[in-house]
Amino acid sequence: MSTDQHAVAEHTHDDHTHGENCGHEAVSHDDHVDYLHDGHKHAAHEDHYDEH
Ligand SMILES: [Zn+2]
Ligand SMILES: [Zn+2]
Ligand SMILES: [Zn+2]
Ligand SMILES: [Zn+2]
């Protein structure tokens, strides 16, 4: 069983880059920040976003 499986968001950094004033609400989640995006949450992870 894989211990590193995670959900990769359908959106990418090329589609949209989250950051200050990007228009999405930032939510603290443990040691990182998620961004609310159309009903799901993105967390930046290397070259893609994870779905949280
Ligand atoms: Zn998205
Ligand atoms: Zn954003
Ligand atoms: Zn998160
Ligand atoms: Zn990831």
From TrEMBL:
Biased composition annotated in UniProt, kind: Basic and acidic residues: 7-38
Residue ranges of the region described as Disordered: 1-52
Protein's name according to its UniProt entry: Zinc transporter permease
Species per Swiss-Prot/TrEMBL record: Leucobacter tardus
